Amino acid sequence: MTYEIPVTQARAELADLINRVVYGDERVVVTRHGKPLVALVSAADLEKLEALREPADEQVISSVSRIGGSTSVAGEQRRFGIAAHHQDPGAPRG
Q: Quick one: 27 exposed, middle or buried, by C-beta within 10 A (0-12, 13-18, 19+)?
């Protein structure tokens, strides 16, 4: 269950909020002007969230490293049939 509380009230009730998170299996969203600011989650929940995130990060890194810099701009232009080249309008023409 998620519980929302304004930041001013959260300051006054921090110890109680920590107990709700740790022992009540709740998640607390602290708001400012009605907008979510931070969330209090148990250390166990944080561990689960980080475990879910790490494989996705590694997958992106391996995908990028497979793509790498193995192709040149000219090679990509030929591959996609691009004949035009970008030229800075302020650059001198030669």
A: middle
